Fold this protein.
Amino acid sequence: VTTPCGAPIRTIVTGRRVITTGVYASRKAGRPLPYESMNELAFFMHCEVDTEVVDYRAQPFRLEFVIDGRKRTYIVDCVRLMADGGIEVVEVKSNSRALQDQDYAEKLQAVRAICQQVGWCFRLVFMKALMKRTSFHRNVTDIQSRRMTDYTSADVFQVVEILGRSGDAALGELVQHLGIRALGLAKLQAMMVGRIVHIDLTQPIGDASRVALVPNQRGA
């Protein structure tokens, strides 16, 4: 079940709920995405930066199905279109305690089966996994904060030309081709959200960080 206009199936931000709610302005998705926990917000930030994620949506539809004669419903937390063409349906949770509820666990099993039937992947993502690599999450938070920085086709051409010749380059080297340092860095970070470049996030971001083209940009 979807909405006629493609908007999220449930209105999250009502001003009357005691849980954390808000709206994340996604450049990658090209629209605001409502969230109803800090877990979902953190996950959206990772999706925004992850170059394997082409597009994603928050609560885009509701599944309706029957278990043991009972009609059940499930509102999807997030759906992602991946670079390999795959579709991922993602449930975001703080931890695995929720799975101790047998009724909830059975519902997720049914959702997983439905996804398998249509060729989609169903994933459970826990907050602990998102935060496990502290430096990685810090880099994600930093890069997504520059997601709305403007860059021009000339900027992209320069970056693609340099990386097309060398395969990869140091972040500090690329920055100097894009204006003053702070602006050049922000442009490159926005280009990662735009899936033009991939910056190594396994170590703290600095001049020595390696930058490469996202595969679909090679030869552009």
Observations:
- The mean pLDDT is 90.
